[in-house]
Amino acid sequence: MSAVPPVDPLSAAFDNRAFARQLKRGLGLTDSSALKALQDLLFDAGQSHPALADLAQRLPVFLGGVANSFAQFDRDLLLRTRSLAISSEELSSVNERLRIEANSQQHVLAVLRESTRELMQSQGRPEAPLSHGGSDDLLGLAELMRELLSQREQAQDSLARSEQRFRTLIANLPGCLHRIRVDEQITALFISDGIFRLTGRSSHEFTTGSLSILDIVAADDRDRVRASFRSAAERRGRYEIDFRLNHVDGQQRWGFAAGQCVVDDQGMYFDGLILDNTATKAA
After folding, report:
1. Do the Cβ atoms of 48 and 38 come closer than 8 Å?
2. DSSP assignment of 185-232, as one string?
3. Which residues have CB under 8 Å from 126's CB, separation 6+?
4. pLDDT tens digits, residue range 218-261?
5. pLDDT confidence of residue 5
6. Residue 214 in contact with residue 226, Cβ under 8 Å?
7. Model confidence pLDDT, tens digit, residues 189-212
8. Long-range contact pairs involving 25-34 (C-beta distance under 8 Å, separation at least 24)
9. Which string of b and e fits 91-104 if b means at least 16 CB within 10 Å?
10. Residue 206 and residue 189: Cα distance in Å, rounded?
11. Which pairs with CB-CB distance under 8 Å and at least 24 residues apart come from 198-201?
12. What strands lie across the sheet with 238-246, from one edge to the other?
């Protein structure tokens, strides 16, 4: 295995370009041979001035240290350059992320504005001026949305309580409420569960079309009941009529029906009620 030739410190001084430029600019030395000639001159002058001989002896070590400092500076500069390049890429990434987040925020604000307008319209409130920018825009919309949602929840709670009172009223009614279609069979679109106490028939049998109102009317009263509904439909008016009801237990009960003809974009129908009038008739 061949020996590695020793590194000449005088030659190594010119390996770094920046240091070589300084040697040329400051001392007029263009290469290692010129530097070696300078060292020899110092040695010669050292015969009469020992300090110059000592300087010549120390010159390679000194130049090697300075060359290493220049090399270290170059390495540090390279690291800083790479760091700046990475930082630039990261900055671009952050800017893109911020741009996407800003666009998302604007989209959220637009959705909030539209939802707020719809809520205000549904509550019959005049539209408040909504901001289209500024750091407080999102907070202001969120506060307004929370207020509107709270009011809607209160309205829904109030409606639920009203519906519960209405259901309780219907449940205790001695009869049933209904919405029936104006046709030959007087078909039920809706009929409350009270029909079961009157006839022993479930409301489901009527709303599914298994039974019509005329099916539970005594045969002798059907023509009169049909004529009463037909007359009210022609007049777009009210009707009131007594008739006998057939119960599934075989007994007949008296019913009193009253209602109003209604016409809208869904067609023509009657909203009304049928009450158990048996006790009154028996009195």
Report:
1. no
2. S--EEEE-TTHHHHHS--HHHHHTTS--GGGGB-GGGHHHHHHHHHHH
3. 120
4. 999 999 999 999 999 999 999 999 999 999 999 999 999 999 99
5. 46
6. yes
7. 999 889 998 999 999 999 998 999
8. 32/8
9. eeeeeeeeeeeeee
10. 8
11. 198/245, 198/247, 198/253, 198/255, 198/274, 198/276, 199/245, 199/246, 199/247, 199/248, 200/247, 200/248, 200/249, 201/248
12. 188-191, 175-181, 267-276, 252-264, 238-246
Matching residue, tokens 């408040």: 128
Q: What token pair was written down for 5?
A: 């030739």
Q: What amino acid is encoded at 187 in this protein?
A: T
265 by DSSP, 3-state: which? coil
Q: Which residue has the tokens 């009172």?
A: 165
Q: How far is residue 37's CA from residue 10's CA, in Å, rounded to a whole number?
A: 11
* pTM for the predicted model, two decimal places: 0.45
Rounded Cα gap, residues 252 and 244, in angstroms = 6
Angle between helix 50-122 and helix 137-171 axes, rounded to 10 deg = 30
As a residue count, the chain comes to 283
